[in-house]
Amino acid sequence: MATQSNLFEQIALDLQVHGLSIQSLDLNEPALLALTERLTILSPQDFRKAGIGRQEEHNKNEYIRRDKIHWLDNKNPQEALFLSYMQDLQSYLNRKLFLGLFSYECHFARYEPGAFYKKHLDAFKGETNRVLSTVLYLNPFWQSQDGGELAVYDPHNPDNILHIVAPSYGTLVTFLSDEFPHEVLRAKKTRHSIAGWFRVNTSVGGNIDPPQ
Ligand SMILES: O=C(O)CCC(=O)C(=O)O
Ligand SMILES: [Fe+2]
């Protein structure tokens, strides 16, 4: 299992070469354990239906994605521990790759049995300040029959699957947000993840661009 600095180094290398990284966190990583604990405390009322943009109507949304989400913030100590871990990753990637990442936002996502998220890009070139997507999985003992894999497609040939990633506990996927189409296949068991985005600053006129 990788130490934190080895892991960050590996992610930076993968991103540099492939634009995508699939790694596993140390299973004793305090930030991972904090999230696990937080998840046991969150109740269904703490999650709300995820949207796909302000203008989208309800039915279309249901067809595209069926997860429920809970945004992380620094008020909760367990969430704060993970946010600080990702802040460390942000600083590391900025030092190594000069990405100029400015902030990180993320939410828990719950996919109940039958839920999915159809093929999409997290960002469109030139239209967004989301630069790097991250997904961390929180599902112990995930079996292949449980479905719910992340399918990552080839940016140059979006019909080609590049990777099928099981949402197993501690797996962290990082990729360029406007490059890789991806999809969450139908989950057969409740599936938890943290989806997040590193952003660059697009503030204008001295107003700091707000997250979310
Ligand atoms: O949970 C996952 O595997 C990916 C979720 C995702 O693509 C998203 O929330 O944008
Ligand atoms: Fe996504």
TrEMBL record:
Fe2OG dioxygenase domain location is 102-200
> Is the keyword Oxidoreductase assigned to this protein?
yes
Q: Name one GO biological process term.
A: cellular response to hypoxia
Q: List, alphabetically, the InterPro entries matched.
A: HIF_prolyl_hydroxylases, Oxoglu/Fe-dep_dioxygenase_dom, Pro_4_hyd_alph, Pro_4_hyd_alph_FE2OG_OXY
Q: Name one Pfam family in it.
A: 2OG-FeII_Oxy_3
Q: Name one GO molecular function term.
A: L-ascorbic acid binding
Spell out the SMART domains in the cross-references. Answer: P4Hc
> What keywords were assigned to this record?
Dioxygenase, Iron, Metal-binding, Oxidoreductase, Vitamin C
Q: Which cofactor does it need?
A: L-ascorbate
What this protein is called in its record is Fe2OG dioxygenase domain-containing protein
